[in-house]
Structures are given as C-alpha cells and as structure tokens.
Automatic annotation (TrEMBL):
Keywords: Signal. Residues 65-167 form the Scytalone dehydratase-like protein Arp1 N-terminal domain. Residues 1-30 form the signal peptide. Transmembrane segments: none annotated. It comes from Podospora australis. This is Amidase signature domain-containing protein. InterPro entries: Amidase_dom, Arp1_N, AS_sf. Pfam families: Amidase (PF01425), DUF8016 (PF26053). The keyword Signal applies. Residues 211-385 form the Amidase domain.
Length: 664
C-alpha cells in the first residue's frame, strides 16, 4: 500500500502543501504526507483513507459520467466471480447490510474476472434494483486482490482508496479517532463531521472484510480503553499531563495485538476514569469530561472505569464491541447500567504487557458488547489457548451445571426489578433443568472459614484488601515513575491528578508493606476457600463448573450526573462484586430488561437497565459466553440494541425537532 501523492491533497491541506514546497527549496528536507481527505457524498460524510488498496486500469471515457471531487471518483469493486446479471441484486444487498455503502458508489463497478469466465466489457445492463443507477458502467478488472466494496478512485493514478463513514461521538466516549497504517501502527483519523464538542469516528466499510477461521473478527469494529497502548499512538490513562509527557507507544501490547491479528478494526481509543480508578460523573472527572450514558434520560452516570466502552457500545449501532478492563468492577459496572453483555474474565488469561496497571494481582481485560456471537469470537481471540470455548463444533456438547446459587438476591417479587431478577433465576433453572438455592456467604464463611482467617467475619477479614492492593501496586508501578519523569521534565513540578486517585494513593501511602503482604495473604485465603467450598470446578470439561453463582448487578437506578457529591473516599469493605476480584473467577453481566422511573431531569418516565452477574468456576469463561448465546436463542435473554432503550430508539440527548414540526 502506498501513500497518496501530495498532488492530490484535499482543498483543506492545499495551503500547507504550497508552504512546504517553498520550504523544500531551501532545506530539501521537508516531509509531507496526506492524512486522508474528507468529502460529503449525497449528504453522507466520508473519509478517504490515505492508504491505497491497489490499482485498476480503466479508460477515462468509461467513467466520464461519474462525478469527481478533487481528482477522486466514487466506484465499487465486486470480487468473487459474480455474473453481471447478479451485480444489481448484490449491490442492493450491500446498501442494506453495510452502513458505509450507498447507491452513489454504483455508478462505476469494477467487476473482477472470475477464473476462466470473463464478463463482457463495459455495458450498461438493464436492471430493476434501486442500487444501480441507469448510467452504471461495468468495467472488468484483472486485479483480484482488492476486497469488494466502495472506494474512491484517484483518477490520475488508478489507485483505489478505502472509504470510511464518519459518525459523531455524541456520547463523548472516545479520546482519539484512529485508522490503521500499512506498517501495523495507528494514526489519527483526520476528518471531522458536525457535532457539539464531539470527536468524529470513522468506520471502514464492512464489505472489505470476510470472516475466516484465521480472522474470526474480520471487520468487527472495536473501541479500545485508553490504558492499552497502541503502536504510534499517545495514551493518557485519563490524565492530560500523562498524555503530554510521554511519546507515542512504539508497540501494541500482546492483548490488543491478538484482536488485530484476528481481524478486528480499531476505530479509536476510549475514555477511562483516571488511572482506571472508579470515578463518578461529573464531580470526579476533572481532567476529561465523563462520557454520557445513552439510556434513560441520558444523564445517568456511565459507571467506570471502562466508561467510554460502555457508553459507546450502548449508543452506537455502528460500533460492535469495546475492550475495557476490570479490576474491581470496571467492565461489570458500565455493562450493568448501560444494559450490555460484559465480562470480567478469569484472572491471568492473557498478558497485560503495555497496559497501564491498577493492580496486576487483580487486573483483567474484558469486553462490553451487544451481540453474544461477537463476544464469543472476541473472547476466543483475546484469551487464546486459555479460553475453553464451549460454542459450536469440535465434539463438545455443553452440560450446564444444575445448581443455581443466588447471593443478595431479592426474596420476593414485589417490584418490577425483583420480578426481573427472580424470573431470570427461575427461567435459568428451568433451562438447565436444575434448581435455585439462595446462599448466605457470611454464614458459610462463619461455619467453614480456614484457620488463617482468625475467626474474623468476611467483611472485616477482606475490608482493606482491595484498597491496599490497588493503591500499593499502582503507586509503585504508575505513580512513582510518572511523578519522577514529570518532575524531571518540568523543573521539579507535580502533574495534576484527579481527586479520586489522589485520595486512594494517600491511603496507600499511609499503610506499610506489612499491610500489603497481609492483603496478598487475605486474597489467597479467600480465593482458595471460595474456589473449593463455594464455586469449585468439575472434571467434565463440558460442564466445567459445579454451579452458576448469581448476584444483582444493576437495579435500574438513575444515578444522575448533576449531583454535588461527598469528597472521594477509599474503597473499603466487601460486596458481591469483590468475589470474582479476589477468587479470580469469571464474572459476566447479562442485561435482563428495563424498569421505568420518573426522571427529575426530563420530568418524564424513563427506562433504566436491570442486569444480573453470573459467575462460574475459575477457567470456565467459555461456559458463560455459551450460556449467553443459548439463553438468547431460547428467548430468555434479549440482545440489547444501541439507543435510548434496550429496544433501540433515539437517545434522549439527541432528540431533534421532528416531533415539534409534526405538531405545528
Ligand atoms: C520501545 O522503546 C523502548 C524504550 O526506548 C525500548 O526499550 C524497546 O525495545 C522498544 N520496543 C520496540 C518493540 O520497539
Ligand atoms: C446472612 O445471614 C445473616 C445472619 O443470619 C444475616 O444477618 C444476613 O442478612 C444474611 N445475608 C443475606 C445476604 O441473606
Ligand atoms: C474498614 O476499614 C476502615 C479503615 O480502616 C474502617 O474505618 C472501617 O470501620 C472498617 N470496616 C470494617 C467492617 O471493618
């Protein structure tokens, strides 16, 4: 792939090219490169990649009727030995299945020769479908390397450039919009569509990509939390001083690289609460504005730290999945309040090299996603050999555990939330042919705790464990080198840090190494107790887990972002959400539905997501993803849509004047 020549720069960059030309006379060292071009085509904003997909031969007269902008013409490539009579039908399908493709690209079609069969050259066949205008030119081409789809053809060179459609990040969920470069790095996507203080995200046509066994994520559009380093891209960890201090990463960490190798298309880096510590909108998010939760009245907190991941997948149909991370709930929280599937995986399934740590002892990379099929493929790609998939072929037949355990679940179905949770547990039990048992971990601990626990109740034994691990480890691995590097570069100064990480780190500074060692021991003690007494694995790999362990993830609360809050504290205590953190077991979120409540912001009833968390024995991640697929197939769980509600619909903050005009 070759970069565009500077002769074909956009109007916007033309001034720069002239200046550089003058400079090059005197210095002979000027460097200039296209960063792409943006165009508006039939009222849709597009970005033309600066990296060519290949060349085609044509005669100028073949394309004389096709419009030109700055030396480019919109065209279509059709591969795969499609016969001329089927082209029209195919292009109609494309307009329905790909948000980037539009009828306008069909004015000129490059039809690749199939082996042996050569379509007749340049004719304008009669056709019925709407996707192909009467003036269509069909040109045969021998080039079979260029994927099917829409392109902009550089008339002067015959080079075809891929097309991205531009979308506004109205939920404020991204920090940088990216495209891949031919050398395996990333660079900024340089176009901007209209939006109010929003970034623009570009997504490539889905038609360029074909899923294969080696590329199960081909064309899957993904956002990446801004703690994973990408080659060629500066990261922030939610901190502006960090962004400015450090250079772009020189390599992509192995976790994200696996997704790229599987064909995933990274469209941008997404907001994290600072240093992946939990923060509340709007008070705590000082360096960057918190993303917006599209559900309900549009002003509920997104939960954090994978806040951009949750907001974007809940808001945008054009985004398939997001990679977040979960140390103490940073995937599960955003998945719950935004009505998405999400997973905290078993600990240590894949290296987190070149990812900012909160606590390596507890950090895990996980996804937020609407479609469980994509979830399964993404898990298999990210966790590799450590992922025991139970989906599909290879002679494996899942055998679900018949024991369903609930923890801190409602005891009666008086409210719509309780009803949703209890109905789900019942339906699940029926589905697996088993029974539901309510558990009381506090009591179980009292009766079976190991001697190392010293007779302490669970909430005292583990009270400071999480707070100690995340602060002591992050202070050493992140804060200390950051403060040192920043001071060295800025005459001894301190960088700005948000109140939440500062208050947590202050706790870490206040306790000694003995407390840290004690925290390691407490975590290990709890893990071995829980994983043997409460949620053990089983030898049969088609079942994997002795039981399924359920707790409440999200209860349809509002948590409005326009509240003045107390000063941030330290995350002491023990709760259901800490179990998987310490026990290293997979903990996934399923959206169950929505409940209605009155919003003091919209002065209207709005609906908010209810979600359950389900844990299985350590290493049984594949069992839970398979369960999501099977419960969707059985109609027990619904695939959530992007939009204002789980059934889709406009996001409240995006509602326009259509309704007003209708009533005038
Ligand atoms: C990235 O840069 C660091 C620091 O300069 C260097 O030690 C490392 O070898 C580089 N890694 C790669 C993959 O280029
Ligand atoms: C567990 O049992 C204790 C003591 O019997 C009780 O105080 C507590 O509320 C119970 N917890 C749950 C989650 O049922
Ligand atoms: C947890 O630790 C904090 C800080 O030491 C303390 O204030 C709180 O009372 C403790 N809670 C329990 C349940 O032990």
């Amino acid at each position: 792939m070759a970069p565009m020549t500077d002769r074909k720069l956009s109007a916007r960059s033309l001034g720069l090219s002239v200046l550089s030309f003058i400079a090059s006379i005197s210095t002979a060292s000027a460097k200039i490169a296209s960063t792409g071009l943006s165009v508006n085509f039939n009222d849709v904003d597009y970005y033309i990649s600066p990296f060519s997909s290949g060349k085609v031969d044509f005669k100028a007269k073949d394309l004389s009727k096709v419009p030109t902008v700055l030396g480019f013409k919109p065209v279509t490539v059709v591969q795969g030995g499609v016969s001329q009579k089927d082209v029209s039908k195919l292009l109609t399908t494309w307009t329905e299945t790909d948000d980037v493709y539009q009828e306008g690209f069909a004015e000129a079609v490059f039809l690749a020769e199939s082996k042996g069969k050569k379509p007749r050259n340049i004719i304008a066949p009669r056709h019925k479908g709407p996707a192909k205008p009467d003036s269509t030119s069909i040109i045969t081409t021998k080039n079979t390397d260029i994927p099917s789809g829409p392109y902009f053809l550089e008339v002067s060179t015959g080079s075809l450039y891929p097309v991205y459609r531009l979308y506004e990040d109205f939920a404020g969920s991204f920090v940088e919009s990216l495209i891949p470069t031919p050398d395996g790095k990333f660079q900024v996507m340089s176009a901007q569509t209209s939006g109010s203080a929003s970034l623009t995200i570009g997504v490539p046509s889905r038609l360029y990509f074909t899923k294969t066994e080696k590329k199960p994520l081909a064309g899957v559009r993904i956002g990446i939390k801004d703690i994973y380093r990408l080659a060629g891209v500066k990261g922030s960890n939610g901190n502006r001083a960090w962004y400015n201090l450090y250079p772009a990463a020189n390599y992509t960490g192995p976790a994200v690289q696996r997704l790229i190798d599987a064909g995933a298309q990274i469209v941008g880096l997404q907001k994290t609460s600072q240093f992946a510590n939990g923060e509340s909108a709007t008070a705590d998010w000082v360096d960057y504005h918190a993303p917006f939760n599209p559900r309900g009245d549009g002003y509920s907190d997104t939960s954090s730290s994978s806040a951009g991941a949750g907001a974007s997948v809940a808001a945008y149909e054009w985004l398939d999945i997001a990679l977040g991370s979960d140390t103490g709930g940073s995937v599960r929280g955003p998945a719950g309040v935004q009505g998405l599937f999400g997973n905290r995986p078993s600990h240590n399934l894949v290296s987190l090299d070149n990812v900012m740590p909160l606590s390596p002892t507890l950090d895990t990379p996980g996804f937020l996603v609407r479609d469980p099929e994509i979830w399964e493929a993404a898990n298999a790609a990210l966790y590799g050999k450590n992922y025991k998939s139970l989906a599909g072929a290879k002679g494996k037949k899942v055998k679900y555990p018949k024991k369903i355990t609930t923890y801190q679940f409602p005891t009666n179905a008086n409210t719509p939330v309780q009803k949703l949770l209890l109905e789900f547990a019942d339906n699940l039990a029926k589905f697996v042919g088993g029974t539901v048992t309510a558990s009381n971990l506090t009591n179980d601990w009292v009766s079976t705790a190991p001697a190392e626990a010293g007779g302490l109740p669970l909430n005292q034994f583990l009270n400071t464990t999480y707070a100690t691990l995340i602060t002591k480890e992050q202070i050493e691995l992140v804060r200390e080198p950051f403060y040192r590097d920043y001071a060295a570069a800025n005459d001894g100064r301190r960088p700005f840090v948000n109140p939440v990480p500062l208050s947590r780190w202050a706790y870490g500074d206040s306790v000694g190494n003995d407390v840290l060692q004690e925290a390691y021991r407490a975590k290990a003690t709890f893990m071995s107790w829980f994983n043997s007494k409460i949620l053990p694995g089983v030898a049969d790999e088609n079942q994997c887990s002795d039981s399924l362990f359920l707790y409440t993830q999200s209860q349809g609360g509002q948590n409005p972002r326009n509240r003045y809050r107390n000063a941030p504290g330290v995350p002491f205590g023990f709760s259901a959400g800490r179990i998987s953190v310490f026990a290293e077991v997979p903990d996934v979120v399923f959206p169950l539905g929505e409940v209605s409540s009155f919003s003091e912001i919209s002065k209207h009833e709005e609906v908010y997501p209810v979600a359950v968390s389900i844990m299985a024995a350590k290493g049984c991640d594949g069992l839970l993803t398979k369960l999501a697929q099977d419960l969707v197939a059985a109609g027990i769980v619904k695939v959530p849509k992007a939009g204002g509600t789980l059934a889709g619909g406009k996001v409240l903050m995006r509602r326009g004047l259509e309704g007003v005009h209708d009533h005038q």
